[in-house]
Each structure stands twice: as structure tokens, then as C-alpha cells.
Amino acid sequence: MMDNVGGSSSNIAENSGIIREQDRLLPIANVGKIMKQILPPNAKISKESKETMQECVSEFISFVTSEASEKCRKERRKTVNGDDICWALGSLGFDDYAEPLRRYLQRYREQELDRANNPPKRG
Amino acid sequence: MVMADEEENGVSIQLEFPKGRVKKIMALDKDVKRVSSEALFLVSRSTELFLQFLAEKSAQVAIEKKRKTVNLEHIRVAVKRHQPTRDFLLDELPPPSQAAKPDKPTQPAGRPKLDPAPRGTRCIDQFFRKPEPENTAQAPGQPPENPAQAQSPENPDQDQAQSPVPVDES
């Protein structure tokens, strides 16, 4: 999958060539879009805020992932699954996310079932 | 918390963040071997919820300070007010001395953390926390030039920063 998103944040010096900057952060366009949906209509967002939010949400992903993968490791499993993520969120104090995520997961599974019952033509 | 764009009508679920990028960020953790499509979906969605939450709180801070533009200081205050978020994010934010035109030279009521591990068994910044207690009332003298790149401090030998993580996508 090729990522073709510009606007990579440059507020951190790239001392390491191992991790490319654009691969470490979520796209700033998506972050800014979601922020605008939440803020009052007349509110503005500084560019620095968007870049900081990029860092925050990317750090959130790493934080949850680390907690979930630790649980997998202890239980000798190789695949991080949805239950591990839900457990990690609860463990890290984001309990109020569990209910909306359960609803979304339910819809996601229904969607997957529909997709399985009606496989799209690939020919 | 306010659930923006929450639809119960069975409308197709559209994720805001590209799944490939989320997968790459998850794969920065060396311990992650495989991620199911459900897990990837849940992480993407929970990240949206987190962003919405933080944006909302930051906007509230901006309104309290009678500002139209949300800036870095408002995000910092919002992070401080939420314990679970503060645990893993406060040390990641740029220090106040680097903030663009801060509203006040001193931070209001910067309380030191009394409980190092209130929830969960660990925080990422535990491994990088400075020995001296952080006093947010005054700007730290050493702004971190290089934020922590290591996502899994338990693996000091990093041969490959990005290991491919296959996701079971039907």
C-alpha cells in the first residue's frame, strides 16, 4: 500500500534514517479535519497545534499497541486481536471508549459478513 | 463525551485515518508480530475518539482564555486535566519555553505527579522520565531536542525499525 500524503511534519530533526517522518505520524490533513469537526465553527487552529496533535494521536497508537502486544506476549499469542485492544484501552484508563468501540465493532463485523456473503468481483 | 458523527442507522463505517499508516505506526513496536483486521479497526477508531476528545478539551481551554485560535498551550492544559492522557503525553509535549507566545510566563497550578503508576502497570514515558521531579511552574532548562524514537525500550537492539506486520484483510 503506497502512502501518498504530503504535509509531513518537520518539527523534529530526522537524525535517524530508519524511521521516516511521514511513516511515524498520521497525516496532518486527517488530523486537522477531525479537529475542525469538533471545534466551534469560528474557532481556528494554529499549525503548531495540528502538528502537536499529530504527535499526540500517533503516540496514542503506540501506547495502546504496546500495552496490547505485551498482553499477547504473556499469553504466547502472535496476533494482536480486537479483544487485546479493548483490554489495553481499559487498562490504560480509557474506559469510556469501550462502549462506543463495541458498537462500532459490531457494525464492523456485520459489514465483514456482508462482504463475505457478497464477495466483490475481482476479475 | 460527545460522540461526533455517531450514526446508528447502519451506514457504512468510514475510518478517518488511513489504515496503512496506522498499521505502520503499530509496527514500530518490535513486539508486534501480527495484527488482526479487527484490532487495526479498533485502534483507528479509538484514535479518532481520542483526537476528538483532546480537540474538544483544547477548545474549551481556548474559550476559557478567550482565544479564537487553539494553540499549543491549550493542548497542554487539556492534557494535564485528564489523568490517563497526562500519564503518557505530558512529557512528550514541547516544553513551555518553546511554546509560541504563551499566555502567561508561569503555568497555573502545575501540580507534581503523586502517583507514578495510577492505572495500568506501566507508562511509556516511565522509561524516559527524568530522575528530577518535573516542576511545570518553571520551564525546564533542557528542552528535549530528540523526542524518544524507541517505541519498545525492552529491545535495545534494533536491527529493523520497521518489521512488516501482515494484517488479515479479507
UniProtKB/TrEMBL annotation, chain A:
GO terms for biological process: abscisic acid-activated signaling pathway; regulation of transcription by RNA polymerase II. Keywords: Abscisic acid signaling pathway, Activator, DNA-binding, Nucleus, Transcription, Transcription regulation. One of its GO terms (cellular component) is CCAAT-binding factor complex. InterPro entries: CBFA_NFYB_domain (IPR003958), Histone-fold (IPR009072), Transc_fact_NFYB/HAP3 (IPR027113), Transcrpt_fac_NFYB/HAP3_CS (IPR003956). GO terms for molecular function: DNA-binding transcription activator activity, RNA polymerase II-specific; DNA-binding transcription factor activity, RNA polymerase II-specific; protein heterodimerization activity; sequence-specific DNA binding. Residues 25-89 form the Transcription factor CBF/NF-Y/archaeal histone domain. It is found in: Nucleus. The keyword Transcription applies. Coiled coil: none annotated. Belongs to the NFYB/HAP3 subunit family. PANTHER family: CCAAT-BINDING TRANSCRIPTION FACTOR-RELATED, NUCLEAR TRANSCRIPTION FACTOR Y PROTEIN. This is Transcription factor CBF/NF-Y/archaeal histone domain-containing protein.
UniProtKB/TrEMBL annotation, chain B:
It comes from the Eukaryota. It is found in: Nucleus. The keyword Nucleus applies. One of its GO terms (molecular function) is transcription cis-regulatory region binding. The keyword Transport does not apply. One of its GO terms (cellular component) is nucleus. Residues 148-163 have a biased composition (Polar residues). Residues 83-170 are annotated as: Disordered. Its main location: nucleus. Keywords: Nucleus. Residues 16-79 form the Transcription factor CBF/NF-Y/archaeal histone domain. SUPFAM superfamilies: Histone-fold. This is Transcription factor CBF/NF-Y/archaeal histone domain-containing protein. It comes from Glycine soja. The lineage of its organism: Eukaryota, Viridiplantae, Streptophyta, Embryophyta, Tracheophyta.
